[in-house]
Specification:
Shape: elongated
Order of helices and strands: HEHHEEH
Helix content: 55-70%
Number of strands: 3
Strand content: 5-15%
Distance between the termini: 33 Å
Radius of gyration: 17 Å
Length: 123
């Protein structure tokens, strides 16, 4: 059975970032886990952003095993206090993840284009 997982690059020392340290000070290692749940869900989302929709908040609450109000507070803190996420009226996202995924998507597109050209040249 193939593994249904998506790759994304992240720093192996992310836990040492002052913003992450502040998050851990407030929420403990459980908060660190919550943060990575959010990042993984962002990675899987269209355009790498999560919309401000009831079903998104419910999905986050289920993944984190906490109440929706606690999820909303956690995301608010990640935006306002820790500056780990950005938000607008419609969605929230990670600027760092957007940059990383742009780089990865660009590389994949170039490789795909090169492969197509290679196949065309063989014909």
């Amino acid at each position: 059975m193939p593994k249904d997982a998506y790759y994304f690059k992240h720093d192996s020392n992310a836990r040492n970032d002052p913003k992450i340290k502040s998050l851990i000070n407030r929420y403990g290692l459980e908060g660190y886990g919550r943060f990575w749940v959010v990042i993984e869900m962002l990675r899987e989302a269209e355009r790498y952003k999560l919309e401000d929709k009831k079903y998104i908040w419910e999905a986050l609450a289920e993944q984190m095993k906490i109440d929706i109000k606690d999820v909303r507070q956690f995301i608010k803190d990640c935006v306002d206090e820790f500056e780990l996420l950005e938000a607008n009226d419609h969605c929230f996202y990670s600027v760092s993840l957007l940059k990383r995924m742009f780089e990865l998507d660009t590389i994949r597109e170039k490789r795909r284009d090169a492969a197509l050209k290679s196949w065309e040249n063989r014909e």
